[in-house]
């Protein structure tokens, strides 16, 4: 199972940005998700947690400490790319449609490599 959530509490319950929806439709990715905030259950139950940038990773580490939890599988998603241009996924919000497509391509590549990483794991059933 996979899920997507933010580390802050703004936009909870909202649909994705229209440009995100357009990019997803263009790439045949169904999106019906509404924004939600990461919580203690997520941090305890998910085997892997991947963040888009250093700020979110730092916030997740803070939440882990706050809840008295440890998580050895906390990564930046671009850590799985062989040679990323940057360790962080850029925020497309202030750009145009092309910025959202760029982020889609980054995530598509990163997730492909993440799945390869998982397939190599002993405790993964793919």
UniProtKB/TrEMBL annotation:
Its EC number is 3.1.3.48. It comes from the Bacteria. One of its GO terms (molecular function) is protein tyrosine phosphatase activity. This is protein-tyrosine-phosphatase. Residues 1-117 form the Phosphotyrosine protein phosphatase I domain. The keyword Hydrolase applies. Keywords: Hydrolase, Protein phosphatase. It holds the Pfam family LMWPc. Signal peptide: none annotated. It comes from Cecembia lonarensis (strain CCUG 58316 / KCTC 22772 / LW9). Coiled coil: none annotated. InterPro entries: LMW_PTPase, Ptyr_pPase, Ptyr_pPase_sf, Tyr_phospatase_low_mol_wt. The keyword Secreted does not apply. The active site is at residue 91. Belongs to the low molecular weight phosphotyrosine protein phosphatase family.
């Amino acid at each position: 199972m996979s899920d997507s959530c933010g580390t802050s509490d703004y936009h909870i319950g909202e649909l994705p940005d229209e440009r995100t929806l357009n990019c997803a439709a263009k790439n045949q990715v169904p999106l019906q998700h509404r924004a939600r905030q990461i919580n203690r259950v997520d941090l305890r139950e998910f085997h892997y947690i991947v963040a888009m940038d250093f700020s979110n990773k730092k916030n997740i580490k803070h939440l882990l400490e706050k809840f008295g939890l440890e998580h050895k599988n906390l990564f930046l998603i671009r850590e799985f790319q062989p040679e990323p241009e940057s360790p962080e996924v850029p925020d497309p919000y202030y750009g145009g449609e092309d910025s959202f497509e760029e982020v889609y391509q980054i995530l598509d590549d990163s997730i492909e490599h993440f799945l390869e990483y998982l397939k190599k794991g002993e405790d993964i059933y793919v």
